Amino acid sequence: MRITDIKVSEVPLDTDISNAVINFAKMTVSMVAVYTDKVVDGEPVVGYGFHSNGRYAQSGLLETRLLPRLKAASNEELLDAETGLIDPVAVRQVAMRNEKPGGHGDRAVAVGTLDMAMWDAAAKAAGQPLYRLLHDRFSPGAPIPETVSVYAAGGYYRDGGDVSALQQEIKDYLSLGYKDVKMKIGGAPLDADVERIEAVLDILPDDSRLAVDANGRFGLRTALDYAAALENYDLVWYEEPCDPLDYQTHAAIASEYSGVLATGENLFSVSEVRNMARHGGLRPGQDVLQMDPCLSYGVSEFVSMLEVLDAHGWKPDRCYPHGGHQYNLSISAAFGLGGCESYPRVFEPFGGFADETPITNGQVRLPDAPGIGIEHKSALRDLFNQQF
Ligand code: MG
Fold first, then answer.
1. For residue 190, how many other CB atoms are within 10 A of its CB?
2. pTM above the 0.85 mark?
3. How far is the CA of 285 from the centre of ligand 1 (A)?
């Protein structure tokens, strides 16, 4: 097997919504296609990747640093010696040549985007769904679930949005088959957010629960004011109350708030996760971590994160990756994670799962198709066909 070409494209996310910190109207997404000479069912294997919402496209890093290193490498350096197929772990090592430790940021996003495309190609070449390939390589012997728990992340601040529009949005998610939902907080004063939270709780059925997400907006004092207000409700979790890298403030909030805290979607490396485990004061049996593999160097970094977390008493089922797409769905199944995020009706066509696997009772079935399953999400397949 040989990689014959790698192409990169950049498209607008085209979603005019806001959380407490950013608006998504100008957000862009990188798309990657990895072409190979491996023929399966009469067609050469092509692997596809993109990155999760919330970070901008990485065209420069991909085109000027990462791809030239892959092109300069020998074919053997990119392959699994045993199977002769692409080895995404080896590809990542080549892509990261001459990169210093630390300073992860956008580089982690660029590598993660490339990683998704490499795993899609590797799984297609092996004729396996990605979750099974990952399971067999990294977690052999562990049970594979038939479905993965997903929750609907929405409740953004929209221009002209009022409480009844928010209620309608949440009802729509329930009608799609979701049970638990998440809404944004921190983009309005506390009393207005309390009104929004109560409006959503008013319409949730008994078997549905609500999570709230402040997107890292608060300092300690405001985070604790919100924590005191949120103690009144039975929430799934209180997400990113403070700066994602401020471990001491996390610890201070965790010492006051008795509910579940969630964070991690902006931790992009194993060293940041290690620092959170060491210094963040989070409670391994209670709190939730949300690292997103395609924003943080991909699968092999995520495996290292799980190892570090295990050493600090965290089990994989406390992880619920940010991102809401098929790559993280496969990773959630392969590693026995607690579930994963989903963004119904926003961040399309990147968000969501295969057309033939609708959400049922808050669960989504795993795809049978080889690879990530992008070809089984028609709007996303069409966009890849249009770009490449
Ligand atoms: Mg979040």
1. 14
2. yes
3. 20
